[in-house]
Design goal:
about 270 residues; alpha/beta; Rossmann fold; 2 domains; six-stranded mixed beta sheet; about 45% helix; GTP binding; P-loop containing nucleoside triphosphate hydrolase protein
């Protein structure tokens, strides 16, 4: 990758508008399609185009909090891609973290997911993060501003990132909005190393030994404990049987995470 090339990862929850953002920025209308969940080559999609003679690549990543796929499978996909490009000497110029504001309240799952993003990036990368709130057209302006301010003030959401250099830039789902956000990264003449890239290299590619992997492991353990308590309260009911099934799935995923490499997916 030439030193003048710009490589930007676009991350966020499912439904945040990542693919739509990339379509607006690049002018590519063919990107507004669903991912094929059976094809590993379609999970992390780099889209390259030119701005003022410079090559820019926006990396469309699978959304977290997806009902079709587990957090583990999504984390592994993103980690695999970042590990491979890191080995090839392709480092990011920055990260766009997209978060819809149309949730009626700040949920525990959003805080947990945001912490997972932070564990992927590492504090040293915060100064290269643009947090892009979306879905403004779904809310009145006062409500949107309140939800944005709440997240910026809380250390367990965006607050610590902003205090260390991250910026919050609203995305209106318009071409100019997407273009303006991408242009922010053109001023950087250096790249940034993500924490997960460094940790995977140091630990022989073992996701479980990374900060992000440990965080996910802890979350699964907490969820298993919570579900187990619910099962004890619902003994003999249909709901208890359903919860036991969820526990079995989580325990299987936890075992897979703790293995050296539970699966590998070559990203084209």
């Amino acid at each position: 990758m030439a030193t003048s090339d710009i490589l930007i990862a676009v991350i966020g929850v499912t439904g945040a508008g990542k693919t739509s953002f990339i379509s607006r920025a690049t002018g590519r209308q063919d990107l507004l399609i669903g991912y094929d969940i059976d094809s590993c080559t379609q999970q992390v999609i780099p889209v390259t185009y030119s701005i003022n003679g410079r090559t820019v690549t926006l990396i469309d990543t699978p959304g977290f909090d997806d009902s079709q796929r587990s957090e583990l499978s999504i984390l592994q996909l993103v980690a695999d891609y970042m590990e491979r490009t890191y080995a090839e000497g392709k480092l990011l110029s920055g990260i766009i973290m997209m978060q819809p504001l149309n949730e009626t309240r700040l949920t525990g799952s959003e805080r947990t997911r945001t912490t997972l993003f932070k564990k992927l990036l590492g504090e040293d990368a915060y100064q290269r993060v643009v947090i892009a709130p979306t879905m403004w057209d779904h809310l009145d302006d006062n409500t949107a501003r309140l939800r944005e301010s709440q997240r910026m003030q809380r250390e367990d959401v965006w607050g610590d990132m902003v205090s260390r250099g991250a910026v919050v830039v609203r995305h209106s789902d318009a071409v100019q909005s997407a273009t303006d956000i991408v242009h922010r990264f053109l001023a950087f003449d250096t790249t940034v190393e993500l924490l997960v890239q460094r940790e995977l290299t140091q630990n022989g590619g073992q996701l479980a030994l990374t900060s992000a992997g440990k965080h996910l492991d802890q979350n699964m353990a907490a969820t298993i404990q919570k579900l187990t308590q619910q099962v004890e309260q619902l003994q003999g009911s249909i709901e208890a049987a359903e919860l036991r099934g969820k526990i079995a799935v989580l325990e299987a995923e936890q075992r897979m995470l703790r293995e050296r490499r539970w699966w590998r997916c070559v990203v084209m």
